Amino acid sequence: MTISILGILTALSLPVFRALINSQSLDKEANIIASFVNKARDNAINSLEFVQHGVVFASSTVTIFYGNNPVNAATSTTYTLESQNSIWNVNFTNGQSYLYFDKLTGKPNTSGTLKVKHGGQTEKIITIYATGLVEVQ
After folding, report:
1. Taking a C-beta distance cutoff of 8 angstroms, is the pair 75, 63 a contact?
2. CATH number for region 2-136
């Protein structure tokens, strides 16, 4: 009797536990993406390599690059998202899937939002403001 009650309680708690793990995974990914944006901004403010620095967003990767265009640019660091997570709906005011920051001021060339989703069910919104500040919601 006790074992069957324990089995029922375990079966009831598994979906809640799985949802918690998925939520934590999504939070982690969104914070990592935000940290990449902040790192690119910091590199630009500090004039590292004496150039602007930017971030390009693909469905499963985030890459910091040198300069103001990711095409043929030297890259610094790339992060690959966990397999169940993806970046989608990159919506910057310039219509591109990347942004770069001005040297010294750290102002981005564009602003807007992007979404990080976990398995198509839950999502986080990352906002990059015209001042260069980043917010995860």
Report:
1. yes
2. 3.55.40.10
